[in-house]
Amino acid sequence: MKTTHGNLHLEIQTSRKNPVGLLRTTFREKGKIKHEQHGRITGCTLEQLKLLQLAFREQTVPTSDPSSFTILQSREWGASKALSELAKQIGLPGMLYSRTEPWVQSTMAMIVGRLIYPGSKLSLCNQYQNTALWEISGIDTVPDVDEHCYLVMDKLLNRQKAIQKKLAKKHLNNHHLVLYDITSVYFEGQYSDSQLVKFGYNRDHKKGKEQVVVGLICNDEGCPVAIEVFEGNTKDESTVLDKINELRQDYHLEQVIFVGDRGMVTQSNLEALQDDNDIKTISALTHQQMQQLVTRDVIQPDLFDDTLSTEVFDPQAPEKRYCLCRNESSATRESRTRERLIDLTIQGLQLIADYKRKTTVEKLGARVGKILAKYKIGKFIDWSIESAEEEKSQSHQLRWVLNTEKIVKEKRLDGCYVITSDVDKKLMNTQKVIATYKSLSHVEQAFRTMKTTHLHVRPVYHKSDSRIRSHLFLCMLSYYLQWHMRQRLKPLFDSDLKNKNRKWTVQSVINCLSQLTRNKVSMEGVVFYKNSTPTKEQQEILTLLGVTV
Predict the structure, then answer these.
(1) What contacts 149, CB < 8 A, 6 or more positions away?
(2) How many Å apart are CA 498 and CA 515, to the nearest integer?
(3) Around Cβ 427, how many Cβ atoms within 10 Å?
(4) What DSSP string runs through 95-153?
(5) 276, 300, 507, 524 - which has most CB atoms within 10 Å?
(6) Rounded Cα–Cα distance for residues 415 and 160 (Å)
(7) pLDDT one-digit tens code per residue, 159-186
(8) Angle at 148 between CA 143 and CA 152, to 5 degrees
(9) pTM of the complete model
(10) At 351, phi and psi to the nearest 5?
(11) What's the mean pLDDT in 208-224?
């Protein structure tokens, strides 16, 4: 068993009436040998202490009766201990509250537990028999879901703004570059008393499901600093202005560089911010906006290049920079997708044209409109209906033709995208602006982690709005811990194989550490605790994490 000063060992003192076992570590400091005592074992015979001494030395323990050596209990220890120690190193408990209080201990158990045992708060409490997590967190009693989870979540929610201020102060730098994106989290069941859970545009394509909208703020490296929960029918762009103002006021930021996707930084938002020199934006143009600039000859399709990024300016808005980029693989994919959709559209139109039953021009046109709306390719097709004399007839003629000129024009922009910014060029060159916009993928990764892998934010078992907010905040704090875990394990992940052949993921690391157990052992009538010894792989992970178990 390792401590700060090395391996723990047992020393036996027999100078007294009854022998005593001293749990010690011995180390050298400034050339002198020193001892640090961690505990005493009394009430055992000399023979029993010698057996314990062998056990601490991880040597074979001789016993005449094999049944006298029994493992009474074995609980997961390694992952809980390692992540709890990592959380202390990054100062997470202190961010929750300046003092160590019971609710802080319970919160840390839930944060670490979300990474190791994702599920309901009740299931986490029921894990106490299988894990030392609660004990490591400072909870010595059997955890109660109401006392150690639900009531604690209420206290945590009251501290959310203060905690996020601390996170922002620690991690928002580099001219206060801020990444922001939103997603949706859908619910199942009845939430009639909730003001948050509503129907809206679902980004997971879960039709007929009520939801909440979640906004996440990260720094330029993807470290989360704040999370906000909005009503389920909230539009992307409507959250932006409030969030920017909140960043400046609550987190005392003088200048903000706000990075958001096409749906965030809309023209109306830009107009609202144009007079504020302390707020700059980096975003991307929609396809329609790109076409408008092409029409005005501000940008030319020939300027887009796979290897070089060209920057142009709009004479009508000289403060705006347009960084022109192109991705060949995206171009190929977009071209193939368009061809497939055109083929499907033509097939659908042909079926309508071959329809021989009597119908009206209106119904025939409605069927055409449905096909064009389904495949979203109507702008490339010119169509008409030649009506028969009778209103309801099978002689109505549907005719269509592909507009090849529009297809060629559209194809010139395949794989092209335009990143726009009003950040001063002296502060950020073209490549930096592009790289910064691409860093939005960090937020997307955070959402994937929270929603589908590791943290499993869903299903949400809470019914009240306050508990929903607190649950999502807990998930963000767990991701904050995982982010730091990823940073320290980067050498391990970088040296691993790729894609399906890779060995190491966050989950496999946790599974590996979970094999380290804390065992309750009975030997010759003496009951004691003994942790399993890390393997070479486990020790490598622990070393990278900078923790000792």
Answers:
(1) 106, 110, 121, 122, 124, 125, 143
(2) 25
(3) 12
(4) HH-SS--HHHHHHHHHHHHHHHS-S-HHHHHHGGGTBSHHHHTT--SPP-HIIIIIHHH
(5) 524
(6) 42
(7) 999 999 899 889 987 557 788 888 888 8
(8) 170
(9) 0.76
(10) -65, -40
(11) 88
